[in-house]
Amino acid sequence: MKMTKKMKELNIQDVILNDLDKLLKAKSQHNGLNINDVVEIGAYVGASVLRQRFKSTQKINDKEINGVFGVIGNFYVQSFKNNFSQIEFDRMLKRSLELLQTPSFDQDCLVFFDKILGLTPNNK
């Protein structure tokens, strides 16, 4: 999600948790939530945070990647217990890295978030 001035004042963990909470709630209220949705939302949130970081610093290190996905993974394990395993975590990480390699990622990310939040029609 696009960083607002208020979000810049929050630490990165708070931003991630806020985004996950908002998107997961919106998705579950609109048309239900399944494990594939959880993986996809985590992938987009992780990729978005890393992309914003890269835009501001022009580099990303392994510690930052591990930190971002550690926050997401911990949140998911706490929230979904046995329904979110290492298999789902690996799928999410792989998907996130695929997303970051897409030339249209910035636009795709906005469309993905807007659909979940009900800001654009859901074409599924």
Which features characterize this protein?
globular, 6 helices, 124 residues, mainly alpha
Give your account of this protein's structure.
The chain is mainly α and 124 residues long. The chain is built from 6 helices and no strands. The protein is globular and about 35 Å long. Helices cover 77% and strands 0% of the residues. Helix 3 packs antiparallel against helix 4.
- Tally of DSSP β-strands: 0
The residue-averaged pLDDT reads 89
For the largest beta-sheet, the strand count, sense and barrel status come to: none
Topology as a string of helices (H) and strands (E): HHHHHH
Morphology: globular
Strand-residue proportion: under 5%
- Integer-rounded radius of gyration: 14 Å
Tally of individual helices: 6
Distance between the termini: 21 Å
Structural class determined from secondary elements: mainly alpha
Low-confidence stretches: 5-9
Please give the share of residues in helix: over 70%
Describe this structure in a few short sentences:
The chain is an all-alpha fold. It is built from 6 helices and no strands.
Task: Lay out the secondary structure.
Layout: H1 5-9, H2 12-31, H3 35-57, H4 62-80, H5 86-100, H6 105-117
Helix pairs in contact: 2-3, 2-4, 3-4, 3-5
